[in-house]
Amino acid sequence: MDFELTEEQQALVELVDRILGDHCGNERLAELEKEARGSGLGSVHDAQAWRALAAAGAIGALLPEPDGGDLGVLGLALLAESAGRHTAYIPVVAAIALGVLPLARFGGHDDLVAEVAAGTRLITAALEEPGEPATLATTARRDGDTYVIDGAKTMVPYGDLADSVLIPAALDGRPALFLVPRSALTATPLLTTGLQPYADLDLEAATVPESALVARGGDALDWLRDLGELTLAAEASGVCAEAVGMTARYTSTRKQFGEPIASFQAVAQRAAGAHIDAQVLRLTTLRAAWLLDDESRGGDTAERAEVSAEVAVAKFHAGDAGSRVLHAAQHLHGGIGVDTDYPLHRYFVRGKQIEQTLGTATRQLLRIGAHLAE
């Protein structure tokens, strides 16, 4: 596999890094967090950075041709990785992985896709429910020329801010995806570890038109979940890469006994282990992104079950290796590593949020084991 970026992919990375570098410095992020605490629950959404990305065409570049730049899933992974490096408070997972790319794939909502790409609308998907992860308890039934949906969803990214939500529900005993306006459901905002907006959603006889049915079948839901998990893994890759870089810079300048602590064998070994873990996470994420991108374009490189297993491998490392990287970074920083005025804490809590979202490392191991047992 060739891990070299194409000119278009490299241009996307440089564009996103430049925009987020301008908007996501430590002082500005701290100010956003302070404003969020003072004005309400405390969740942070950087609307200014999001609009800047949209205006620069970074979101549209991921969409299929002829309206988009066709950078697809690999482009999304690179964008999410950059968002992780800057710990940006932007809805990459919600609005792109769980929103605009699925709508573009399944079709039928071109105007909404264009509005999300322009930064004027937000959509997300509600993939988690109370109870067993594999159970789809939310139901939908046909009622004349409408559908009526009943159920509850939990931990929905941007669930309280999105204009519409993709809702998985059991229709005639099979999974289906419905696009539901937020006005048709009840959203309860949540304060999470990473401070990004999440919400619980209640649907009590939510009525939507026929056009709200976006896709049918388990494959559509599996693909949507895989795309969300892959994007979280890519964001974790960026988080870990920058945490390792911060640690390398700190240990190279922090001195004890007149020598940089990076020259101490124990410090060097711990840092080297973190670097290796970060590289493993990035490479498994790029492989999963490549396979998912090929599948999304109609390729036959791998079967659906294999692609899903590779996504699980990447998400496993996001939780397992990612946790080791971030703990090592904090320990090697000493006391300053737990100072909330120092930016490293933001990487730690973002990594912990990713680890717990859409399946922990243990859940991913169960998926991988089930695939190997087939």
TrEMBL record:
<dbReference type="InterPro" id="IPR013786">
    <property type="entry name" value="AcylCoA_DH/ox_N"/>
</dbReference>
<dbReference type="InterPro" id="IPR036250">
    <property type="entry name" value="AcylCo_DH-like_C"/>
</dbReference>
<comment type="similarity">
    <text>Belongs to the acyl-CoA dehydrogenase family.</text>
</comment>
<dbReference type="InterPro" id="IPR009100">
    <property type="entry name" value="AcylCoA_DH/oxidase_NM_dom_sf"/>
</dbReference>
<keyword id="KW-0274">FAD</keyword>
<dbReference type="InterPro" id="IPR037069">
    <property type="entry name" value="AcylCoA_DH/ox_N_sf"/>
</dbReference>
<dbReference type="Pfam" id="PF02771">
    <property type="entry name" value="Acyl-CoA_dh_N"/>
</dbReference>
<dbReference type="InterPro" id="IPR046373">
    <property type="entry name" value="Acyl-CoA_Oxase/DH_mid-dom_sf"/>
</dbReference>
<keyword id="KW-0560">Oxidoreductase</keyword>
<keyword id="KW-0285">Flavoprotein</keyword>
<dbReference type="InterPro" id="IPR009075">
    <property type="entry name" value="AcylCo_DH/oxidase_C"/>
</dbReference>
<protein>
    <submittedName>
        <fullName>Acyl-CoA dehydrogenase family protein</fullName>
    </submittedName>
</protein>
<feature type="domain" description="Acyl-CoA dehydrogenase/oxidase C-terminal">
    <location>
        <begin position="230"/>
        <end position="372"/>
    </location>
</feature>
<feature type="domain" description="Acyl-CoA dehydrogenase/oxidase N-terminal">
    <location>
        <begin position="6"/>
        <end position="108"/>
    </location>
</feature>
<dbReference type="Pfam" id="PF00441">
    <property type="entry name" value="Acyl-CoA_dh_1"/>
</dbReference>
